[in-house]
Design a protein that fits this description.
heterodimer, A: alpha/beta, Rossmann fold, 6-stranded parallel sheet, 8 strands, B: alpha/beta, 7-stranded mixed sheet, 5-stranded mixed sheet, 14 helices, 36% helix, globular, binds thiamine diphosphate
Chain lengths: 338, 338
């Protein structure tokens, strides 16, 4: 199977709107990158604790996929979800405050890095039991379908999740009931320290999906335009009621699995090799080669991003902690006593 | 965090400083060298070195057949371990944490726990399943629960909870020799805890609780990560002339009634401390047994200090407030002797 790449093609004519859109894509990816670089720094400084899983190297996937969504669509993500939350439009401030554990965080500091939630953006977490969110995504999509809503539900997962029973249960039922679920596998080649070839008898994930009658494609996950195009095709298909869709986006995680990973399972040289296909560099080069961006515009993006990141840190720093008396709130729904 | 341990041997043994993590690593290594039927299986036990680095180095020493990396398939990990144990092997099954073991609960309860009885005594299941448990690292509500009390509810399995380095080191071998399924719960917050232990392993009596600190005023019953906290509390109380007897349960199923009852008959006051949720907890079971058997020995109602009945919050101050701490333990003891 060939992996679809778009950024090799030459662009002749590009409208100003299109040009602006490209800049938006680059802005999103750079925002995610710089935001997470900051998060790693803050982790070293013990401002952020618990598990922190960085998305660095994989930014093109969340960025590309979100372009095809409407505000009514739903997103369900894993614990490696800062990028997805940002690309979905969740404010950088409340994500940072959440990672600090402050009450102003998007989950009042109760969730942390792995459990970002935002109702307004229909962002259903931040799920840290691998694969537990696939049935959830099929259920959310089923509800849309039963209510005749034209929405899709996007479910991001790692290739490690494919080994869990719930992967197979969810694809089967999604296909059987034709739910509008878009499964996006972010195949970064490693499930923690176990490479796909050591945990899957058939490393071809699209074949697995296809065996459940789910339409499946493999794409270059480091090519933001290829991702965007695939997501649009997928959403058109899903909104026409034909059932679930499966995108396998091939990518690579540049950083350790989490902050507790000595990376014994891969060579430094391998990581460096993959960094040559950094999605931000690939896209920046493409834009430059096609005269779609100027250096000054890139600098402006960086400056804007730096301000957003700094603002989020200031916001988190200056936010209060939740009162300990509130510990037992939200175990059950609070009802007014009127 | 160091814990004074009483059962450091009297013989002229050489003592070495060892971490809780290293204790299990050496136990696994010794078991593999001693019995060729032993092998370690689980996700990331090999190339990654174990999600808590317990098996680090063993892959290089024993190779991929004996240190078997497995996919994220908790149900299959447990089920295959059970099958192998029924047919002549002695697998040491690692499930990363108790939180993920719920995906394997069906195999542990419905297969391992039932087979001997259901087969009229024909089939033994001599499997050992290890997993990490507990809070203290700001890992949030899907990575920090203490569910070993649930497992202690299941007839047919044995449940061990090492609270010292020596027990961590010495419990695996008797567990492997046991003809029935044994679960070992390792405290994730204690992996770096050090203790002086004998250079050669000492077998641990997994059938009995252990008095870690003799005392005459109050009986404090606990296990796991609440053991060091309870020992700290007992030291504080000693300065106030409150003499606390600390019992380390070590084995949560079957419970050692005799050791508990002997202590209660001596002190007449009891506090049970654990990190599980209070309702339906192991502490509730112990309390009931004391009431049923020693009602007239009690000077005060049995008291329990358990986790708040909330999913574990991420932020540090809330996580700390959710589980027993040396200060809250000491305060609870004071109330019993007032
Ligand atoms: C059911 C379950 N088992 C194990 C884990 C521990 N764990 C967390 S992330 C992870 C690796 C998952 O890899 P993959 O799905 O490829 O996603 P990636 O982290 O590479 O994005 C593991 C094993 C978990 N959270 N849940």
């Amino acid at each position: 199977m060939s992996t679809k790449t778009v950024t090799k093609e030459k662009k002749d004519k590009v409208s100003p709107e299109q040009r602006e859109h490209y800049h938006h894509l680059l802005h999103q990816m750079i925002l995610i990158r710089r935001y997470e670089e900051k998060a790693a720094e803050l982790y070293q400084a013990s401002k952020i604790r618990g598990f922190l899983h960085l998305y660095i190297g994989e930014e093109a996937i969340a960025t590309g996929v979100m372009q095809a969504l409407t505000p009514e669509d739903s997103v369900v993500a894993t614990y490696r979800e800062h990028g997805h939350a940002l690309a979905r439009g969740v404010s950088a401030d409340v994500i940072m405050a959440e990672m600090y554990g402050k009450v102003t965080g998007c989950a009042r500091g109760r969730g942390g890095s792995m459990h970002l939630f935002d109702k307004e953006h229909r962002f259903f977490g931040g799920n840290a039991i691998v694969c537990s969110h696939l049935p959830l995504a099929v259920g959310i999509a089923l509800a849309d379908k039963m209510q005749n809503k034209p929405n899709v539900t996007v479910c991001f997962l790692g290739e490690g999740a494919v080994a869990e029973g719930e992967f197979h249960e969810s694809l089967n039922l999604g296909a059987l009931w034709q739910t509008p679920t878009l499964f996006v596998v972010e195949n970064n080649l490693y499930c923690m320290g176990t490479a796909l070839r050591y945990h899957s008898s058939n490393p071809n994930l699209t074949e697995k999906a296809a065996s459940y009658n789910v339409k499946a494609v493999q794409i270059d996950g480091n090519d933001v335009l290829a991702v965007e195009q695939a997501a649009h095709e997928a959403c058109d298909y899903l909104r026409s009621g034909k059932g679930p869709y499966f995108i396998e986006a091939i990518t690579y995680r540049f950083r350790p699995h989490s902050m507790f990973d000595a990376e014994l399972y891969r060579e430094k040289a391998e990581v460096e090799e993959h960094k040559k296909r950094d999605p931000i560099i690939l896209f920046t080069n493409y834009l430059k080669e096609n005269n779609l961006i100027e250096d000054g515009e890139i600098q402006a993006i960086e400056a804007d991003v730096a301000a957003v990141v700094q603002h989020s840190v200031d916001f988190a720093e200056n936010s209060p902690w939740e009162e300990v008396e509130d510990l037992t709130r939200f175990v059950y729904t609070e009802r007014s006593l009127s | 965090m160091t814990l004074p341990s009483q059962n450091v041997i009297a013989e002229p043994q050489q003592l070495v400083k060892m971490t809780y993590r290293e204790g299990m690593r050496q136990a696994i290594r010794e078991a593999m060298l001693r019995d060729e039927r032993c092998f370690l299986m689980g996700a990331d036990v090999g190339r990654y070195g174990g999600c808590f680095a317990v098996s680090k180095g063993l892959f290089d020493e024993f190779g991929p057949e004996k240190i078997r990396d497995m996919p994220l398939s908790e149900s299959a990990i447990a089920g295959i371990g059970i099958g192998a144990s029924m047919n002549g092997m002695r697998p040491i099954v690692e499930i990363m944490t108790v939180n993920f073991s719920l995906l394997a609960l069906d195999q542990i309860l419905n297969t391992a726990g039932t087979l001997l009885h259901m087969s009229g005594g024909l089939f033994n299941v001599p499997v050992v399943i290890r997993m990490a448990t507990g809070s203290g690292r700001q890992l949030g509500a899907q990575h920090a629960h203490s569910l070993e009390g649930w497992y202690a509810h299941i007839p047919g399995i044995k449940v061990l909870a090492p609270g010292t380095v020596e027990d961590m080191r010495g419990m695996l071998w008797p567990a492997l020799e046991d003809p029935d399924p044994v679960l070992i719960f390792e405290q994730q917050v204690m992996y770096n805890m050090t203790e002086m232990v004998s250079a050669t392993p000492v077998p641990v009596d997994i059938d009995h609780a252990k008095v870690r600190r003799p005392g005459k005023d109050v009986t404090l019953i606990t296990y796991g990560s609440c053991l060091p906290k309870s020992m700290t509390a007992a030291e504080t109380l000693a300065q106030e002339e409150i003499d606390t007897e600390v019992i380390d349960l070590r084995t949560l199923r079957p419970l050692d009634n005799d050791t508990i009852f002997a202590s209660v008959a001596k002190t007449h006051r009891v506090l049970i401390v654990e990190e599980g949720w209070r309702s339906g907890s192991l502490a509730a079971e112990i309390s009931a047994r004391i009431m049923e058997n020693l009602f007239y020995e009690l000077d005060r109602p049995v008291d329990r200090l358990c986790a708040s009945e909330v999913p574990m919050p991420y932020s540090k101050h809330m996580e700390e407030a959710a589980v027993p701490q040396p200060e809250t333990i000491a305060a609870a003891v004071r109330k019993l002797v007032l």
